[in-house]
Design brief:
Layout lengths: L2 E2 L10 E4 L5 E4 L5 E4 L4 E4 L2 H14 L1 H23 L2 H5 L5 H8 L1 H18 L1 H18 L6 H15 L2 H10 L4 H29 L9 H23 L12 H14 L10 H5 L5 H29 L5 H6 L2 H21 L3 H20 L6 H28 L4 H17 L1 H7 L9 H36 L27
Parallel strand pairs: 1-5
Antiparallel strand pairs: 2-3, 3-4, 4-5
């Protein structure tokens, strides 16, 4: 009796993929049979069953990951809120001390991310992610026990190590649940937690800074609250998360079979493939990988500038400490909304690079407006510019990662490139934290101009890479003598990437 399985194949009936026993099957339109090459019927396609399965993932996986990333973002960005409440004065920070503390986070962040990413692939993101979360939650709590520059510097170093591969592993983890055309909006919903975290961070700081009766400085309570929440939720996540879609305990056998088929035909060349170091690192032989890393660098400066210094940017509007933190909420919420709009549009159109470029353009315009006006006399325009800054940082970060993950069917290569690309963008926090100098306050003109320049360069490189992919697809069609759509090619055939004749870029 064939099992009920859905393989969403929008434009071709004659596609093939491998089952777990290496038999090839032909995928069909919803409602038709899935047959092996020997003619045996292995499954019946059901779009209704597939929608029900995806809905289960949406309800059971996405919310947990979103909360985990919310805590990750809170623990990473709370230093900016603490600064507005007197952290520098309490710890006796002077000169460039604060900038050094921000910068040191990114050194171990980059150095350890590839190793933790490999561990995540080897032992499962469902185990490594909660353990990382538990560690950086403990580091956040320990900030309350620091009393000088050296103590905070040491904690920030270990915090960078603990958080390094968190986002790359979450991206890889989601690629084991969702098809390529489903990924952008799901990852956007997850990533929106960062924008919400930034907004919630302002609200939480607003509330915590009202505590005036305790024996600790106001800002220390912020780290206690956020750190304890992180540790508690990490224990739940360790117990709850499944290793992959086809191994989820909340699925019945037919649903697990369907989950496996979905990934084989439209995500991975070999589902749950064992990690091979040499094979996985061969991703860096592809020139496009280096172009992607260049775009990640251009993304990193605006992204980190907004995350780390939005309170200081808005502080120029002339509000007190409490209102400054409160006024960071609306721009961050609007950033999450814009991210969702662009991500849903990207999945709907199945285009990636135009929406990545649009995000970079928003960033460029927002910073140029802020630099070019008299902020004190044009408060509303300046505040609107801060909205555009957040619009242009969230969307490229998500869609760029989705873009190159959509083009890598090999699971090991996918996790390696992500484990280098995402930390590289975060490494640009070293640039951001050092261009915002106290001597340039409150205008920060050099920092804002530098950030705008990185945004413009990122937009340009994105358009160049996207245009090249379009041209290369047409060249491949001419060489083959047939026009293929990226959706017509099951990912089982694409293990070797661009070296494969059937390969077409998902742009």
């Amino acid at each position: 009796m064939p099992s009920e399985v859905s393989v969403d194949s929008p434009s071709s009936v004659e596609k093939a993929f491998a089952t777990e026993d290496s038999k090839y099957v032909e995928t069909a339109e919803p409602g038709e049979a899935v047959n092996a090459t020997d003619g045996a019927t292995l499954a019946i396609v059901s779009s209704q069953a597939e929608r029900a399965l995806v809905w289960k993932f949406d309800l059971r996986i996405l919310p947990v990951l979103a909360v985990m990333y919310l805590f990750n973002s809170l623990d990473k960005s709370n230093l900016g809120n603490a600064k507005t409440a007197g952290l520098e004065k309490t710890l006796g920070l002077k000169g460039h001390d604060y900038n050094i503390i921000l910068s040191v986070f990114f050194v171990p962040y980059v150095l350890t991310a590839p190793f933790l990413g490999i561990l995540g692939k080897k032992y499962g993101p469902n185990r490594v992610l909660p353990l990382m979360m538990f560690t950086f939650g403990c580091c956040t709590i320990l900030v309350t026990a620091t009393f000088n520059f050296s103590g905070l510097l040491a904690i920030r170093w270990f915090l960078g190590m603990a958080e390094s591969a968190f986002f790359p592993l979450v991206i890889y983890y989601q690629t084991t649940f969702y098809r390529r055309g489903e990924l952008a909006r799901r990852l956007a919903l997850f990533y929106a937690a960062q924008s919400i975290a930034s907004a919630f961070s302002g609200l939480l700081a607003f509330g915590v800074f009202q505590i005036k009766t305790g024996s600790l400085a106001d800002w220390r309570y912020l780290f206690i609250v956020e750190g304890c929440g992180t540790v508690i939720f990490s224990v739940f996540a360790y117990w709850y998360l499944p290793r992959s879609a086809s191994e989820a305990k909340f699925l019945n056998p037919k649903e697990k079979e369907l989950a496996y088929y979905r990934m084989q035909v439209d995500s991975s060349s070999i589902v749950n493939e064992r990690f091979n170091v040499r094979d996985s690192f061969s991703i860096f032989k592809h020139p496009t990988s280096w172009m992607i890393l260049s775009i990640e660098i251009c993304l990193g400066v605006p992204l980190q500038s907004v995350q780390l210094f939005l309170p200081q940017i808005i502080g120029r509007l002339g509000y007190d400490t409490v209102k400054t933190n409160l006024y960071t909420v609306a721009p961050n919420v609007s950033g999450a909304v814009m991210l969702l709009i662009l991500a849903f549009a990207s999945d709907y159109t199945r285009w990636r690079f135009p929406f990545v470029a649009a995000g970079f353009l928003f960033t460029f315009i927002g910073f140029i407006i802020y630099v070019g006006i008299d902020v004190e006399s044009q408060l509303h325009v300046a505040y609107f510019a801060s909205f555009m800054m957040t619009w242009g940082t969230s969307a490229p970060s998500v869609l760029l990662d989705v873009w190159y993950n959509n083009n890598i069917a090999h699971e090991g290569r996918r996790v390696v490139l992500t484990s280098f690309g995402v930390p590289l963008a975060n490494l640009m926090g070293v640039v951001s934290s050092n261009i915002f100098q106290n001597k340039d306050a409150p205008k920060y003109i050099p920092a804002l101009a530098t950030t705008a320049a990185f945004g413009a360069t990122g937009c340009f490189l994105t358009l160049v890479l996207g245009a090249w992919m379009i041209v290369d697809n047409k060249r491949r069609d001419r060489k083959m003598g047939a026009k293929l759509n990226v959706r017509d090619i099951p990912t089982e055939r694409l293990r070797d990437g661009p070296a494969t004749q059937d390969f077409r870029w998902f742009y």
